[in-house]
Design brief:
eight-stranded mixed β-sheet; flavin adenine dinucleotide binding; 15 helices; five-stranded parallel β-sheet; FAD/NAD(P)-binding domain; binds ligand NA7; binds flavin-adenine dinucleotide; FAD/NAD-bd_sf
Length: about 550
Amino acid sequence: METAFDALVVGAGFGGIYQLKKLRDQGLKVKAIDAAGDVGGTWYWNRYPGAMSDTESFLYRYSWDRDDLLSYPWPRHYVKQPEVLAYLQHVVKKHDLRKDIKLNTELLSATWQHSQRVWVVETFTGETIRTRYLVTALGLLSKQNWPNFKNLNMFQGELYHTGAWPENVDLRGKRVGVIGNGSTGIQVITSIAKHVKQLICFQRSPQYSVPSGDMETTKSYRDDINKRYDDIWKQAKSSAFAFGFEESTIPTMSVSSEERQQIFEDAWRKGNGFRFMFGTFCDISYDEQANEEAASFTRQKIRNTARKLTPTDFYARRPLCDSGYYQQFNREHVDIVDLKANPIEEFTADGIRTADGTVHELDVVICATGFDAVDGNYTRISIKGQEGKTLKEHWAEGPTSYLGVAVSAFPNLFTILGPNGPFTNLPPTIETQVEFISDVIEEAEKRGRPAQPQTNGYANCDHAEHASGHLDDDKRCPQEGTDIESCVGAVVMATAEAERHWTEVCDELSKGSLFRKIDSWIFGANVPGKKSTTMFYFGGLGKYRKLLETSAEDGYAGFDLQ
Ligand code: FAD
Ligand code: NA7
């Protein structure tokens, strides 16, 4: 089967849902597809026990639907997975988007056909889709990172990855092993510890985690947020991390030791990982002495409950928060295996054998081992641009982009949360990028031939040879009686120079960061064999938005619009 659209959006999470609405509102014929069985993206796949956001509820949503913003319920200060999923399903229903979304449809390949200025997309369902614009919202924490342990497939028990959690898993009364203790691992462990018969946590690196401060939302709290919502969004979109607090401008060592302890103590009591790292002092993420102050404060707190869990390296991963993680290890049936001292040797039919010879017998193994982040979902498929190279080949030295949304040599392709986008609470960044991409497309449409409703990839022409894709570059369109250029649609692409410059900006900005000294997904250093490289823009959302505005004011500087 073959179908054609003005724009195809791939992914139906926060990014894809809004992008579909925006482009449809602009009058384009748009379709969204997703490999998943429903909309929701991250919140469809990550159904593991305890899954929740670590952005506070009031900012983990869209700002563009004011009625929803004021009325949609969020019962606690943090939203849990079923609530985020229900919220996104509600948005889709309210704006009648479902009729333009095709689920269970994975994009396998997309090839730019320059003669017709269209992307030709092949899906797992055997469909061919021709589209003038291709917008990918494939997710930056979406492709699961499965550990490559010896004899993993020998294990006879239940084996799950948190990022593809099936429905109806019952862990009660079972012996469970959890590998990994990042944000996901600590949520799972905290959630299941009390229900399972035995819990063994296989830990490679201890974590710094601060309390989340989660609690029920009172009516007066919600009323106050509702009153201030305009200011809250304005502040978030002009701040660095968009987490809804003012980032500190005070250097750690500029205050007395007593004052410092008090500031940390207040932030600890209030909760939230980003607030603790970036709301207390301004230099924790790049100054070693400041980092050590924050790290030692946290270590002291951890030591009081769980000595084995105390980290010693820099406090320089995505800041975590929890609802009683360390305390779970006081339970008799919860234990921890230090993988640095005693690595996993292999899986057996009954469980996991560690280097000391112990076989940890388990009914269930949960891999909370994270994601092949940012580019993982791009490099596993074939997206072939105008030079016949795939994105994977284009990114051989590490993923690059212009402003996180476009890649040179890949015309009419836009990436939501593509490489080197801002490192923030993500919905405000997603909104920013969707709105920018939509504006670029609108401008391209204006500059191209005036678009008529059409289904064959051409602005004004419905000639049969065009529709069937059999007209070569050098042929003239008989219907138009003119050069092919005059009946093809607009083409827009980041320039190679803009992409190179943006890559340098991002690299430069990350150089002073202590995050770069720790192997985590933020620099692509968590997947064996993956090159560690800059994956984010660390200049903050406020500055990023200004750069986008400047590009637009300069006629979309950095883009070639034909
Ligand atoms: P996603 O929600 O990841 O959606 C991508 C979609 O693309 C998926 O449904 C996938 O099936 C689909 N897809 C991928 N490849 C293909 C293909 N080839 N063909 C068809 N479909 C495809 N961010 C925050 O800011 N704050 C938080 O508190 C927070 N908590 C998180 C907690 C967890 C457990 C995880 C995993 C992530 C969290 N994130 C958080 C990040 C989260 O991913 C983003 O906030 C946001 O949901 C991303 O939306 P998205 O639409 O860009 O991508
Ligand atoms: P993370 O933060 O990448 O954490 C993955 C965890 O799994 C972490 O503790 C890793 O240890 C551990 N891991 C990974 N591979 C292995 C192997 N092979 N052996 C042992 N342990 C391993 O992923 P999350 O899902 O927790 O969170 C990702 C983001 O999603 C998070 O920041 C939120 O934004 C939501 P390591 O630390 O590398 O030593």
